[in-house]
Amino acid sequence: MNAPDKYLELINLTKKYGEVTAVDGISLTTGATQYVCILGPSGCGKSSLLRMIAGHEVVTSGDIVLEQNNITDLAPADRGSAMMFQSYALFPHLSVRDNVAFPLKMRGVEKSKRHGVAEQFLERVQLDILADRLPSQLSGGQQQRVALARAMITNPQIMLLDEPLSALDPFLRGKIRSELKALQRALAIPFIHVTHTQDEALALADLIVVMNDGHIEQAGPALEVYNTPRTEFVARFLGGHNIVEAEKGKVSIRSDRIKIGSKKTKNSLNATVSEIEYQGSKIVLLARSERDLEISAEIPDSDFFQNPIEVGESVLLSWKADDAHLLAG
Amino acid sequence: MEPRSRSFYALAIFFGLFILFLYGPVITIGILSFQGPRGGLTFPMNGVSVHWFYDLFEKQAVGDIWGSFRRSFVLGLMVMVCTVVFSVMCGLAFRSRFRGSGLLFYLIITSLIIPSILISLGVGLIFNILDWEVHWSTSGMGSQLTWTLPFGILIMFAVFNRFDKSYEEAARDLGASWWQTIRFVVLPIIAPSLIGVALFGFTLSYDEFARTLLTSGSKNTLPLEIFGMTTNVTTPVLYALGTLTTVFSLIIILGFLLIAYLLRRRQERHGSDAGSGLV
């Protein structure tokens, strides 16, 4: 699924705004049909990185290679990339049909022909019946799909998405998320998707790239990044992990791997329950250890209600040695 | 309804007086322009007629009403086009902070606070020194632009402040050249504001007085002509002229509003089935 590799290559890519370094020497290689999520907090440089790939930001140093072509200094339209903007950037004065046909119009395709092609692409996103509308007359999800159709009509080799789901309400977000994944599978081109939402990245990505402060903290398959976060930052940013001091250094333990035990071992600690959150299928237990460490444990609801616990109670939290993962640095 | 406080009524009366002060003179001239054929320049009305409007179209003893109207109209259009073109270009240029942009901005705005008669005098003087002939279409237009351009530029600054740059980036991404981006994306989106700038340009020029006073040369624009007539003409034909130009200005403004309205309608026609089938 991830072969052939080296479809998009970023080589020591750097972006400086005056004295400020937004992207600090990033190198990354992605496969030809990978869904890549660049994940990080705001200001970590992920948007600058995407905008450099798209050609909307001048590269300070380094190279961008797409399918063996160095596209570092090419104009946005000559790169074979298509960008989806956070605000969708649908032209407010043009109908949905004219928005989608816009790239063809710029290339001088005559009106009836470009409208015909535009409608084919609108059919693919099931919006052909709304072709006469203005963007302002569409819902957020519909606008999103128009923007996708408009990006697809340029026949891109790579799709770049800048926080594509952040403007949608939570319900729609899940729906569009699966549509994006299905679309990527159908087009069989790489999607580079920038987000600050962890579950979005986990749900979509073949390759997760966690960024912090202009550099990559960890890049790998979603499963690998979630199970074995490389650094404390990654573990904390992904959430659902506990950081515990062990003999060799700090380790991370997934919250759902922490059990309420009875026998004191090397892999356990005493803590006082400070909060209990009911989350439907599971209970999230927040507890404070004797060394004032905050620990969260996710317990299946059936287990919890067999042995209910109250806030303020003392518990012994334990985990398997294999579930404790040593963090770098 | 909530009971009104006493200050509401006091302020309402004050506001009413202000409105009266604002429009009283225009209304007075409007009424007096319907003076009877034997009536004079002041009240009381000596009958009611449209005599003086007819008189306006006769050959006048003094003044060249229609010639000056024609000049003012053409000058207004020239100033309008220049104001729109240069304001847009200036607005585009000032989006990036280039070296000296702050200083340049203040230089442009300063011409709003320099007394207009000084600008008129200065422009006239420069033309004199260079041995060029002052004319309403050259020196006159130039000194009017010192007034209309800063206004146009300020409007365009406000417009581009709100303009979402991702529209342009999207256009470039979709293969539009620089010029295509301006032509097919930027200009259509800011079109309604351009109508406002055009309206400003035309009306400010059409009734500009002080800046044109010493720069229009031997042929007068309409405001100058009317001013000249106030010292020579002793009949209500002057009022008829005033009423007519006021009506003309109103028609121009309504015309612009109509264009803006039609532009919006043309866009909305695409979406006549709005509201049905929202997911």
Description:
The complex is a heterodimer of chains A (329) and B (279). Chain A is an alpha+beta fold. Chain A folds into two domains: 8-227, P-loop containing nucleotide triphosphate hydrolases (Rossmann fold); 241-326, Nucleic acid-binding proteins (OB fold (Dihydrolipoamide Acetyltransferase, E2P), Beta Barrel). Helices cover 28% and strands 32% of the residues of chain A. Chain A has nine helices and 18 strands. A six-stranded mixed beta sheet of chain A has the order 6-7-8-3-9-10, sandwiched between helices. In chain A, strands 13-17-14-15-16 form a five-stranded antiparallel beta sheet. A four-stranded antiparallel beta sheet of chain A has the order 2-1-4-5, covered by helices on one side. The longest helix of chain A has 18 residues, at 170-187. In chain A, 44% of the residues are buried. Chain B has 279 residues and is an all-alpha fold. In chain B, 72% of the residues lie in helices and 0% in strands. Chain B is built from eleven helices and no strands. The longest helix of chain B is centred in the last third of the chain and has 33 residues, at 237-269. Residues 271-279 of chain B have low confidence and may be disordered. Chain A binds chain B through residues 54-56, 75-77, 81-83, 85-87, 89, 91-95, 102-103, 105-107, 129-130, 132-134, 137-139, 141-142, 150, 154, and chain B through 164, 166-167, 169-177, 180, 184-185, 188-189, 191, 267-268, 270-275, 277-279.
